[in-house]
């Protein structure tokens, strides 16, 4: 059909015209900021173990996660996290701080629609798929373990 | 034989008053000095951004009525539209006024759509004073079409920045001011683009279609206009339009530009430029009207485009249809 051909040609033309993102600067920024967040986590963990020598390593990990999640959520609340994210891309999305941001930001956005239908319902619009896929894949891995 | 899509107005309705209101970021943009009112904050003293958008439309309508030197009771009809679901900003704004209301949806082409419909009604002597208005707000559009404001994500280089702003103008059968002489009512055009971050490419074919119809129906060429301006094709979209028109044998020269592309300064880092109903509406009702009034422009072809998508349709894999309406505005009396 004529129209289909026209659309294909147009899409091809547009794709060639679209300005490309430069991968290397983006990769570099996401790498060093992502790394910095990981260092921060390691730092918190080490300090916890230094200050509380009796603390179990597993417990220290938990507190570290809580600290990072709180920090990201707090920075989202005061409107700073999205600015870092704009610059760092994957570097701020991949660590647990990104997960925290993806839950806090819709919660903030939709609080005007009420606690239940706004905040609680919309809170997981972005993080929801991560949780679903996380659980489904853990079931699959669990099944594999069951048989080997 | 192609159908005539262009209406030539016999009585040439006059734009007797126009008003624009924008957010602080827009106030710092390239048209900053031309706007009637720059808000101190995006929330405009309201609790939610949706309420702020509504208040902006009301503010623009009242401003336009005052500048037209008529009383609110003189207004017969309000034509308005916006981007939000069920065009709540316009309808809820109209709730506080005591005149008839027609809600329009032409996405970002709404300013031209309302002016084309309004001019037809005034030209046909059906109404005396018609107010045309539209608005968009960055924060309400972001959350309806994209992501929460505070989410730390990156935008692709084709993405555009929704203008926070509202424009309104008053049409009358006679008076002083620029006159609407023609209107071309656009068709819905879809060239199969499905990238929601690339509205410029999705809407450029609609702009081409309407411009071609306009030049053909009105027997004019781009050289007959001091300014040919599209709404929010952005940097990429307007380049595409120039290419598409050239393929059709029509060269858009230096008198062509795009409101979205011109809107923000380079330093404001808005990637491909401004977008939204407010983009073309605020530029028309500030900069372009001023230039028409002082005679720097004699004849302007105003042709904003709209992407008629919804998140539901795009998530179901549909492509993005576009529409473009064009109106010709000429300065002063003949």
In short:
The complex is a heterodimer of chains A (148) and B (334). Chain A is built from eight helices and no strands. The termini of chain A are far apart.
Write the layout of secondary structure elements.
The complex is a heterodimer of chains A (148) and B (334).
Chain A: H1 2-17, H2 23-51, H3 57-77, H4 81-88, H5 90-93, H6 96-109, H7 115-122, H8 128-147
Helix pairs in contact in A: 2-3, 3-6, 6-7
Chain B: E1 6-8, E2 14-22, H1 24-27, E3 37-38, H2 49-67, E4 77-82, H3 88-94, E5 100-103, H4 110-123, E6 130-136, H5 138-145, E7 161-162, E8 165-172, E9 179-184, H6 199-218, E10 227-230, H7 234-247, E11 256-258, H8 259-263, E12 274-275, H9 277-293, E13 299-303, E14 305-307, H10 311-315, E15 322-324, E16 326-330
Parallel strand pairs in B: 2-3, 4-5, 4-6, 7-12, 10-11, 10-13
Antiparallel strand pairs in B: 1-9, 2-8, 6-8, 9-16, 13-16, 14-15
In round numbers, the mean pLDDT of chain A is: 92
Helix-residue proportion of chain B: 25-40%
Q: Secondary-structure element sequence of chain A?
A: HHHHHHHH
The proportion of residues in beta strands of chain A is under 5%
DSSP, total strands of chain A = 0
What is the SS-derived class of chain B? alpha/beta
Distance from N terminus to C terminus of chain B (CA atoms, Å) equals 33 Å
User: Uncertain regions of chain B: pLDDT < 50 for 5+ in a row?
Assistant: none
Q: How many structural domains can be distinguished in the coordinates of chain A?
A: 1
What is the helix/strand order of chain B? Answer: EEHEHEHEHEHEEEHEHEHEHEEHEE
- Count every helix of chain A, treating DSSP H or I runs of 4 or more residues as helices: 8
Most extensive interface: A-B, 37 and 27 residues
Q: Uncertain segments of chain A of ≥5 residues (pLDDT<50)?
A: none
């Amino acid at each position: 059909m004529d129209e289909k051909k026209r659309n294909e040609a147009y899409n091809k033309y547009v794709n060639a015209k679209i300005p490309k993102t430069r991968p290397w600067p983006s990769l570099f920024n996401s790498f060093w900021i992502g790394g910095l967040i990981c260092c921060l986590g390691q730092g918190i963990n080490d300090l916890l173990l230094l200050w509380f020598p009796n603390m179990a390593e597993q417990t220290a990990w938990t507190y570290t996660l809580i600290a990072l999640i709180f920090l990201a959520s707090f920075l989202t609340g005061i409107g700073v996290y999205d600015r870092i994210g704009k610059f760092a891309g994957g570097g701020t999305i991949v660590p647990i701080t990104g997960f925290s941001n993806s839950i806090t930001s819709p919660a903030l956005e939709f609080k005007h629609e009420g606690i239940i239908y706004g905040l609680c319902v919309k809170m997981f619009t972005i993080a929801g798929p991560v949780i679903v896929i996380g659980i489904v894949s853990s079931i699959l891995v669990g099944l594999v373990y069951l048989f080997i | 034989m192609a159908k005539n899509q262009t209406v030539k107005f016999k009585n040439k309705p006059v734009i007797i008053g126009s008003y624009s209101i924008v957010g602080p970021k827009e106030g710092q943009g390239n048209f900053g000095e031309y706007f009637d009112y720059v808000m101190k904050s995006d929330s405009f003293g309201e609790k939610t951004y949706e309420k702020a958008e509504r208040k902006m439309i009301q503010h623009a309508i009242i401003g336009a009525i005052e500048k037209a030197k008529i009383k609110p009771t003189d207004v017969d009809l309000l034509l308005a539209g916006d981007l939000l679901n069920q065009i709540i900003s316009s309808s809820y704004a109209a709730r506080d006024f005591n005149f008839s209301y027609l809600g329009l949806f032409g996405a970002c082409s709404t300013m031209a759509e309302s002016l084309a419909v309004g001019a037809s009604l005034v030209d046909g002597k059906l109404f005396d004073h018609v107010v045309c208005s539209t608005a968009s707000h960055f924060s309400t559009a972001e959350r309806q079409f994209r992501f929460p404001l505070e989410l730390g994500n990156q935008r692709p280089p084709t993405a555009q920045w929704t203008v926070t702003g509202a424009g309104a103008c008053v049409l009358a059968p006679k008076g002083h001011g620029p006159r609407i002489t023609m209107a071309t009512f656009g068709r819905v055009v879809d060239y199969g683009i499905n990238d929601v971050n690339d509205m410029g490419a999705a809407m450029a074919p609609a702009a081409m279609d309407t411009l071609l119809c306009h030049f053909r129906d009105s027997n004019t060429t781009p050289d007959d206009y001091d300014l040919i301006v599209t709404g929010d094709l952005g940097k990429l979209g307007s380049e595409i339009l120039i290419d598409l028109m050239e393929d059709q044998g029509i060269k858009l020269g230096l008198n062509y530009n795009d409101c979205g592309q011109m809107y923000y300064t380079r330093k404001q880092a808005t990637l491909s430029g401004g977008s939204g109903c407010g983009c073309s509406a605020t530029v028309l009702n500030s900069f372009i009207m001023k230039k028409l009034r002082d005679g720097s422009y004699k004849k302007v072809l105003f042709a904003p485009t709209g992407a008629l998508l919804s998140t539901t349709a795009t998530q179901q894999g549909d492509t993005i249809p576009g529409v473009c309406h064009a109106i010709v505005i000429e300065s002063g009396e003949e």
